[in-house]
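sorry for the late reply, my laptop died twice this morning and i had to redo everyting from scratch. anyway the thing you sent over, i finally got around to it. pasting the sequence first so we're on the same page, its 246 residues, then the predicted structure underneath. double check i copied it right bc i was rushing
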Amino acid sequence: MTYNPFEISGADRPGRFVCLCDHAANTVPPFVAGGDLGLPPEDMNRHIAFDIGAAGVTRALAERLTGPAVLSNFSRLVIDPNRGEDDPTLVMRLYDGTIIPANKTVSLQDREHRLSTMYRPYHDAVVQVTAAQPDPVIVSVHSFTPQLRGRPARPWHVGVLYAGDRRMADPLLNRLRAEGDLCVGDNQPYSGHLTGDTMDKHALRHGRPHVLIEIRNDLISNEADQMAWADRLAPILTDTLAASGL
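ok and here's the structure:
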């Protein structure tokens, strides 16, 4: 089977929303270290390798918003598409206490090969899909672990991340808080800006409305919960866009 570093879902849907999932898969292509980063299955199936549940939410959310979705098909441990090409964490050697054996001696040639075969094709697909939509609104879906090793538990159910452009973030934060049963993170559990990251590349530099949503991964670990979050978020995002006046 031919390897494809990305998936496009619903390319012909006409809506303004474009949903992205940077960390959709834990795939290690066969041409990278023989398809094995040297980690046991339990590590490849936890949050260090991909965003648990985010792919299912992204596909379902895009469908409900009648827009397309673009999802990566390679593990963030192979190369992280939500980093700039010159970011020192583009290829992680250590993540949440786990050493990545196949990344310990990654050469510049290896790095370039991963960029050219996975990272850049994924971002090219995002360019293609967003360019085809009328006045696109970008929603990037991620998930986060309830607790990093040796760190305090994270109380948030969902986080809204942003950088300088708060046109979508502020009304979305207000709308999520109005739900009444959610602990909502404002640029938590991470800061919303890394130079060269996905939102920087495809939204900020083009003046496009956008927001990044982080969902705690224990809340979307199965298909039923993923569908429930998509059902919940779709009208919230539609209301948010209307409230923003964009």
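The mean pLDDT is 95.
thats about all i looked at so far, will dig more tmrw
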